Structures are given as C-alpha cells and as structure tokens.
Amino acid sequence: MRSRLLATTTVAGLTALSPVWAGESLKLSLGGYAASGLTVIRQDNVATPTAAPINRGPGDDRVFAFTTDIGRSDVFWEAEVFFQGEMKSDFGLTFGVNIQLEAFTSNDQIDEHYVYLQGDFGKVIVGAENSAPYLLHFGAPSPTGAYFGVEETVRLFFPLRAPASNKVATVSTFSQLTGDANKITYFTPRFAPGFQFGLSYTPDDDSPPGNTAQNAYGINCKGGCAFDAGNGVSDNDQANHHHFLEAGMNFVRSMNGVNLGFDLGFGYGFLEKQSRSAVGQDRLGKDRIVATAGLSVGYAGFTGGLSFAWDNLGLQGPNSRYDLAAGLTYGAGPWLVGADVAYVVAKDGQALQSGMLVRRGNDTLVYAEIGASYQLGPGIKVFSVLNVACWDGNGAASEEATGVAWSTGMALNF
C-alpha cells in the first residue's frame, strides 16, 4: 500500500497519480468443494390429496389421500467451482470478482456472482450475493459442517421429502427475503470491541438467482428485470415485492478462552402495486418483513449456537412463520461430533367454511441431526450422520409425515 486515497483529493489529483495498479492485472484462480456419498431413507408418508378409492364400500364417501411408504437408497452429489480473483491499486483499494458454477446441470447453473471493492472504509459488494443480515448471521452449528445440518442455508443436503400441502418444507433462520438476487451491499470495518454493520438494497426479486429473464417488452434482462418491476414501474405481480432494504450487525470477540458471537438482522420489502380481483376481494399481499437473531459460544472444543427467524411472508392474514434452531458440537483433534435440532411453526392462514373465514391450525416441522466427521487431511473429511424429521398439520395426510435418513460420505474443499 504505497499511497492512500484521501477524502480531500481532487479529481485532477487522481488522474495525476501513476501508476494506478501496484501489480499485474486481475487473474482468476479456482476454488470450490465437492461432496458425495450414500443415503438410506425411510419415510412413512408423502401423501397428496386425491379422490377416495372406489373400493371403500357403500356409504364411505370420505376423501383420503394416497400415501407412499418410502424406503430407498440414493447416492448424493453436490459440488461447486469458484472462479475468483483480486487486484490491489496504488490507492490501497482491493477490487475483486467471484463467480460460482454449479458442478451439475441446474436451473441455477451460475449461482452467486458479484464484484466487490474493499478498503479502509469497509467493503462494497455488487451483484448476485446474499444480503448483509444473511452474511452476518450465526446459525446452529452442525457436526457435518455445511452438509446435513438442520439449517437450510448452511446445509447442502435435505434427504427427506416434505408433504405436498405442508407450508414448512425445511428450516432456515437465515433471512430468506431476497436470496442472492442482484443487490448492492455495504459492510463497515469491524469496530472495537468487535462490532460490524451491514446494509443491502435489492431493487427487485422477480428472478432471485440473477437469472436471465424477459421484461414486459420481451427484452432479456438479468437479475429480476429491475428496470421494469423494481425501479418504480410495477409489474403488479400479486405476491411480489420490490425495493428491499436490509440491515444487519454482529459482534465477535474472544475473551479468556471464550469465543463469543451474536447478531441481529432486519429486512423490509415493499409490496408491488396490487389490484383487486374480479370478485372484489382485497389484494393478497402486504409489505414483507423479516427479523433474525443468532448466538454462538465456543469454549475448550465445544461450540454451542442458538438462532431464530420471524417472517410475515408478505401475505395478508395470519401467515407468519417462526424458525428456531439450536446445536452443540465438540471437536478434538481431527474429530468433530455433535447434534442440532430445529422447530418451525407456520401459521396456515384462513379458510372459507360455511361462508365464514375460519383460522386454520399451524403447520410445523421438527428436524434433528446427530453425527460425526473426521478430518483426513487439509480440505478432506469423511462424515456419517442421522437425520430425523416430523411434519404436522391440520390432520390432513397431505400435511403430515415422519422420516429418518442415514447418510455417510466424503467432502473435499479446494
């Protein structure tokens, strides 16, 4: 770092500085991960609503759902390749790029992809990356790391299948407001005694992964067609939102052998302009709000964590969702063992019965993991894990299921 860009420097002064770059132009390097192994699953019900079987006999007109008793084995695979690079200027600024390619055929073939600028002022990220409260969040720890834990966003595999009509498919205390839609994010430097803050703005969420899509004029656009939907011209999608604002903070500090971390996050998405339906009903959506919090404590090889999320889902009526997760791991040498568990409640809205709106019961999920991993070498580990899930609903077969899965495999980071 041979010079600094001062706030008082004029544009003319900037153009006079030479050379601008401290080294060669940016070059990309490769990174990523790959994980594969065997899963054995036993699940008692993956029902979908259907008509009553004809062999029930006269007088039995109840509508039952067909159910399937799943007992199967499968080979799982998950991998991504990262293309990443950085370069530093004579001003002390770091410029970088990160592009993440799914190592299998996918609708989201290119996952996160963004550029960033970093310096003494903090860091600015522009592109398809998760939001500030997401990146600052502490989730429940898992003995398998990022592979079979209860938290969706730090879990690459979910071996069990959610019932078709249950509103809870999986668990996540990480903010799901904008995913990795194209956005602008700013992180402050970390301040003493350990605080860091972040802000994100996302114009629109029509195409969360940053995929190519077509706007109202049939022209291709990337990252959600924000010029049509997110920047003041609404596309009137009944359930969609735009102009998302998200803020997060966390605290990290080590004190007398105790590693402490906690975070708070908040996000707000404005409802796109809505119109009443043909039958005169009010709009279906409302502004969407998400709040998250997490805690992590580590001492003498133990790591414990507790995390929470609340999401109103941006829908009218009683439709809020609550996610709570907790975990504990212990590491000794190459071994890591532990367990984590989560509980999710999703209010199931209202139903029209005999001409009246009646509040339905809640959909729930209890999901747990117990397992161990062993580090064979730098970036190489093997693991074995047992997952259990129980979905419950309104007494309907299409909302309820229980299952267990055992998985074992190997993961490599490069």
Describe the structure in brief:
This protein has 414 residues and is mostly beta strands. It has 3 helices and 20 strands.
Describe it for me?
This protein is mainly β and 414 residues long. The chain is 3% helix and 50% strand. The longest helix has 6 residues, at 11-16. The chain starts with 10 loop residues before the first helix and ends with a strand. 34% of the residues are buried.
In the predicted model, the low-confidence regions spanning at least 5 consecutive residues are: 1-19, 49-68, 214-224, 226-238, 278-282
Rg, nearest Å: 24 Å
- The total strand number stands at 20
Percent of residues in helices comes to: under 10%
Oligomerization: single chain
Largest sheet: 16 strands, antiparallel, barrel
Could you spell the SSE succession in H and E letters?
A: HEEEEEHEEEEHEEEEEEEEEEE
**In DSSP terms, counting alpha (H) and pi (I) runs of 4 or more, how many helices?**
3
Instruction: Average the pLDDT over all residues and give the rounded result.
Output: 79
Q: Order of strands in the sheet with the most strands?
A: 1-2-3-4-5-6-7-10-11-12-13-14-15-18-19-20
> How much strand content do the residues show?
over 45%
Structural class: mainly beta
Coarse morphology: globular
Cα-to-Cα separation, first versus last residue: 29 Å
